[in-house]
Amino acid sequence: MRIGVLGTGYVGLVTGACFAEFGITVTCMDPDAARIDRLNRDDVPFYEPGLAELAAKGRRAGRLSFTTDFARTVDKAQVVFIAVGTPSRPDGSADLSQVDDVARRLGRGLTDYAVVAAKSTVPVGTAARVRDTIRAHQARPVDFDVVSNPEFLREGSAIGDFMRPDRVIIGADSERATAIMKELYRPLYLIETPFIVTGAHTAELIKYASNVFLAAKISFINEIANLCECMDADVQTVAKAMGLDKRIGSKFLHAGPGYGGSCLGKDAAALVHLGDEAGAAMHLAAATIRVNEQQRARMVEKIRDTLNGVRGKTLAFWGLSFKPNTDDLRDSPALSIAARLLKDGCAIRACDPEGLAAARRALPALTGCEDPYDAATGADAVVLATEWNQFRNLDLDRVKSLLRAPVLIDLRNVYDPERVAACGMHYVSVGRPAVGVNPYKTS
Ligand code: UDX
Questions:
Q1: Residue 94: what pLDDT?
Q2: DSSP string covering 313-342, please?
Q3: Would you state the pLDDT for residue 443?
Q4: Tens of pLDDT along 15-55?
Q5: Is 260 near ligand 1, meaning CB less than 6 Å away?
Q6: Hey, which of 119, 298, 323, 430 would you mutate to test ligand 1's pocket, going by the most ligand atoms within 8 Å of its Cβ?
Q7: Structural domain of residue 233, as residue ranges?
Q8: What is the pTM (predicted TM-score) of this model?
Q9: Where residue 353 falls among pLDDT bands split at 50, 70, 90?
Q10: If you take atom 21 of ligand 1, which residue's CA is the nearest one?
């Protein structure tokens, strides 16, 4: 089987490399010639564990190729994936200009029957819009189907998520298209992945409903964390006990600085917009967004309060990416908290295993550091902002000896409070009582 993938962003590249690994012949297309050049030199333009190796393997085997040539990509492809960006507009709605653009080109470029599969997260009704646009731009009638095939992969574990998904969603209105999509995903069928075959509207909504539900879980536990702080309770234990109820589940109940990344925030805003347009207000989604914004502000307040104000002080920041195992800084809570603190007049010595260079471009005032010990050197406190494994088991006695004051503010609840206190440090986390003596509060 031969497929084309339009767009070599995160979803497009992972999709292309993984299908090539399944033995499919894949052509990935992007109009950005510099990006295609890099990909043809096995240089993946972002960090995702295992992706560069998988792409190189596919290319060596002759199953994966990269091009700027649209016609070559769709020629003889049985399935063409749309994996272009759908950024948020200021009003929260999804900007579909790139989707519309490739639909117009597909109208002009399809020469034989193909399934056009939308992988990008798109508002309900987009599959129909793509179908109409393709049709309107055909010089002569060529048969095709448009299906919605939303992707659920997470950054940092994208390949595993693609190869072993919890489910595959196929939103199609034609049996022919459904059969081709099932054939394409046959390796997953063999490992008994559940397939949900449904209409395009339902498939499109599944993606939003799933992502916004995850965001709501995070906002919920963050509100509970705030309540725990007022009541001397421990959110970790609350979350653990809640998660043992199988109806609730233990995932996405980790309190912290709020969610970030390219999907959850964008999808929550898009769902609110979709609900408003449809006359079915999405109150929970709207509250989820508000709570997430407040959570970041609360973290800034927590840091300011611990240090009696940050003006003139130096903070060590461990972690800048929106979550571990990625260099992605989009909507990163760590970065936005750092930006607000810099505005308050402090200095920040930051480290991040993959995201430092881009973070320094976004916030040139950051001082880049080699590692967490370097960052802590001479700082007035440490802020653990993203829970990279590299930060989980540090020598706290050494950290303490490098700091000007022994204060660790852990926005990801990575450390055990008793262990930190035993090292003689003041430890502040999220939704758990602070421990140890705060050197900034003793007069
Ligand atoms: C998300 C969805 O999980 C995925 O299915 C979809 O395809 C894309 O969007 P991703 O953005 O890569 O994936 O990351 P995810 O692991 O979902 O984390 C999102 C944010 O939530 C991160 O900032 C993370 O730190 C935060 N988070 C996650 C929490 O604060 N607490 C949790 O318990 C879980």
A1: 86
A2: -EEEEE--SSSTT----TT-HHHHHHHHHH
A3: 63
A4: 999 999 999 999 999 999 999 999 999 999 999 999 999 99
A5: yes
A6: 323
A7: 208-244+255-292
A8: 0.94
A9: very high
A10: 259
